Amino acid sequence: MTESVICVDKSNELPENVDSLIYIDKTPFTAVTEGKAEVLFPSSHDVFYNPVQEFNRDLSIAVLKQFALDPPKTKSKAKQADTSENSDIPGISVLEALSASGLRAIRFAKEVPNLSKVLANDRDTQAYLSIQRNIKHNKVENIVQATNEDASLIMYKNRSYKDRFDAIDLDPYGTAAPFLDAAVQSVKDGGKFIFVKILFFFLSF
Ligand SMILES: C[S@@+](CC[C@H](N)C(=O)[O-])C[C@H]1O[C@@H](n2cnc3c(N)ncnc32)[C@H](O)[C@@H]1O
User: Fold this and answer.
1) Which domains does the chain have, with CATH numbers?
2) What is the mean pLDDT of residues 105-119?
3) Which one has a higher pLDDT value, 13 or 91?
4) 91 falls in which pLDDT band (50, 70, 90)?
5) From residue 176, how far is each of 116, 193, 196, 204 by CA, in Å?
């Protein structure tokens, strides 16, 4: 992990559809590099980042990489990712339900082959804006999409058979128990796992 302070010209760096508040001036951001991602944090530190969790993110990526190489072949209808190293395998879809800066989701997109889609969700507005900024900064718009909803709500919204995710990452501040019912309902049949912090639950339906 490396850290540097850079100044982003917001008029050039930010997407047009985000809150006008972030166009006001040239606020300094801290750039943090972890794995293949570089994420920008406002100097006010109003979006969660914990460098101690780098190992946890590395572990999630290692497990997801293995899963993506051998996804449930008959069940997944996701379209193949253009950048896939394994273009004969259907791409998998991932939800990071509690994403903060988007760092983990962006690392998924850059480090895990064979992903069709990653949703990076956070209910906090500053976090959502940060995810949008970091998606653009890392040029992963083709894979990662930001959403600004309650984690349980977005999972319940995606519980119909066609919308379910191959993998769901839950990284809450405390227990993941409040999110488990929604997660179990929105993970694909045969798309087996939900991972929570450093515990991995392998589910088979
Ligand atoms: C521990 S941080 C996530 C860190 C991130 N996964 C990473 O690897 O850097 C937890 C995040 O969950 C968000 N959050 C808490 N409750 C939520 C809920 N019910 N729905 C959506 N986001 C929530 C917080 O705003 C915070 O950004």
Assistant:
1) 50-70+90-195 (3.40.50.150)
2) 96
3) 91
4) confident
5) 26, 14, 7, 19
Q: Return mean pLDDT, the chain.
A: 78
Cα separations in angstroms, 108 against 20, 136, 194, 201: 29, 15, 15, 18
CA 62–ligand 1 middle distance (angstroms): 21
Among 118-122, 136-140, 179-183, the range scoring the smallest mean pLDDT is 179-183
Q: In testing the pocket of ligand 1, which one of 41, 55, 98, 148 has its CB within 8 Å of the most ligand atoms?
A: 98
Give yes or no for residue 151 CB within 6 A of ligand 1. Answer: yes
d(C-alpha 191, C-alpha 188), whole Å: 5
Cα-to-centroid distance, 98 and ligand 1 (Å) = 4
